[in-house]
Amino acid sequence: MPEADVHGPIDYVLIEFTGNRLTGRAAEELVTLVERGIVHVYDVMVVGKDADGSVYSVDLAEASDQAGGFRDLDGARSGILAEDDLLEVAGAMQPGTLAALIVYENTWAIPFVAAALESGGTMIAGGRIPAQDVMEVLDALDSLEATTQGA
Asked: A Pfam family for this UniProt protein (predicted)?
């Protein structure tokens, strides 16, 4: 099976930022990942939630400080995300924040997926552990190790 017919795993992340504007740092790193061929961004949706709980969408095509570097990803509109996703995102957000919902393909995995399929492999399960959970567990293990070494 040619790699052109194979896709890598598709993920989404919802990242909430305090305040009503983005600095652009996260978006810059995402653009770097795209340029390096590590990921392909299908969709980006930036949603704001005012202090009173009202929800709004940030138009990435507008020259707005609010969108930060995500303006550079304005063309990422595959249609995977729809208007109802905006409401779901808003439900997860705290008032007075902005959130970026990003749908992306892990293009780094395409050669691996192609090789597995060519070898007769079939994915029967998959999953994702959120980065925050991994960092918390590793911090707890480091603390435990420090405690046991000091005892």
From this structure: DUF6325
Structural domain span for residue 36: 3-122
For residues 150 and 148, what is the distance between their CA atoms, to the nearest angstrom?
5
| Domain count along the chain | 1
Q: Is the CB of residue 87 less than 8 Å from the CB of residue 4? A: no
With beta carbons less than 8 A apart as the criterion, state whether 123 and 75 touch.
no
* Strands 55-58 and 97-105, sheet pairing: unpaired
Of 26, 145, 45, 24, residue with least CA distance to 89: 45
pLDDT, tens digit only, all 151 positions of the chain:
555 689 999 999 999 988 766 778 888 899 999 999 999 999 988 888 999 999 988 877 775 666 667 777 777 778 888 888 888 999 999 999 999 999 999 999 999 999 999 999 998 888 888 888 999 999 999 888 888 887 6
Please check whether residue 89 lies inside any domain of the structure.
yes
Q: Judge whether 75 and 46 are in contact, CB under 8 Å.
A: no
* CA atoms of 132 and 98, how far apart (whole Å): 19
Does residue 26 sit within a domain?
A: yes
Asked if residue 127 belongs to a domain, the reply is no
Q: Report residue 116 as tokens.
A: 């597995």
